[in-house]
Specification:
Layout (H helix, E strand, L loop, with lengths): L13 H10 L4 E5 L7 E8 L4 E6 L5 E14 L2 E5 L4 E4 L4 E18 L3 E4 L8 E4 L44
Antiparallel strand pairs: 1-2, 2-7, 3-7, 4-5, 4-6, 4-7, 8-9
Length: 176
Amino acid sequence: MSTVPAVPRILADLGAEYAAGAAAGRGGALWRLAEPGRQLDSNLVRLGPDAAVGEHAENDLDVLLVVLEGSGRLDGPEGSLELEPRAVLWLPRRSRRSLTAGPDGLAYLTVHQRRAGLGIGNLTAAPVLQPAEGGEGPCMLDRVCPECGRMASEASALYCSRCGEALPARDGHSNE
């Protein structure tokens, strides 16, 4: 049972989070929803000018993407969609897509159902996998290089194997 009170509250000022990340020249996930007991995950993401997130698909979850600032393009097998502030996109599970920021960069918010990690219970008493808190974020933004957009193949990577840029840390702070 969750000990988090079921009371609506303001969690962040995304404008301030974005401004702080932009001033520091940071890309990747600038803010993440981290409340215990939540059913959703959400990320504020900043891509630098002309940076890209390579083609990928989320096989299990639909994702809602809201463009907050800048411009860009979402490319998929069906064609391209131009991204401007206030655009709201539905990315259905299994849809293939890539994102490319425009010349001024791109800031967007993603929202999706939380994917719980798996834990192993006592194998002698109950040989069934039990859901546990946590788990890896479905979009793996902490593995996307904020400089060149390459996705690290290793979950433990700290630096981009293409350009050497520090990858975003899982806790939202720099790995440097």
